[in-house]
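Before the break, one more example. Copy the sequence into your notebook; we will annotate it together after we see the structure.
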Amino acid sequence: MQLITKKIVVKKTKHSPRIEKETALAYEQNEIVICSAVKTLNGEIIRGHRHHNAMATMRDIPRFKNESPPYGDRQGFVTSLNRYVTRSEACKIQKKAGIESIMPYGEKFLGGELYSEDLY
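Here is what the structure looks like once it is written out:
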């Protein structure tokens, strides 16, 4: 039996005033954070269970093999509305939805940012 895996890459959309309107609507639609994600230098989004999983997937894609690891705002999350958000925006989304961090120790939502350890 052969194991088949699928790598998911979400394409970046161009920024427009419509994006800001969609962001406002997203908060009204009980948006929640689904999974970790990283953004490549060309704006493609790669999802993963944790950020290091998304980075490993990124390294497995030939066109990103030599790209430096994502850091800062290039490490974020994908939401239930299929939006890429930064760690700080993800934290606000979770708090707005009333979802508590599950971190058993240390500071939860460290520095006002979401970490995958806060999710699962």
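The CA atoms of residues 26 and 43 lie 21 Å apart. The longest helix spans residues 17-28. Try to locate both features in your own notes.
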